[in-house]
Design a protein that fits this description.
Elements: H1 2-10, H2 20-44, H3 49-59
């Protein structure tokens, strides 16, 4: 979910001539960022699931 949110916000208005591969790789990058933030907040800082989810979406 965070990958598509980050991708949509970052490429607002620039998606007309985009290939499917670019979409896939962009979503993988944003998904990785969101997953890393989620994991760090949830496991390392011992926060709640909701806090980790908000941090991941905000980071993307």
């Amino acid at each position: 979910m965070t990958d598509y949110i980050g991708y949509t916000v970052a490429n607002q208005g620039f998606r007309e001539g985009e290939r499917k591969g670019e979409l896939l790789y962009s979503m993988l990058v944003y998904g990785l960022i969101g997953w890393l933030v989620f994991y760090c907040v949830l496991m390392l800082w011992r926060e709640t699931f909701f806090t980790a989810m908000l941090a991941a979406v905000s980071a993307c």
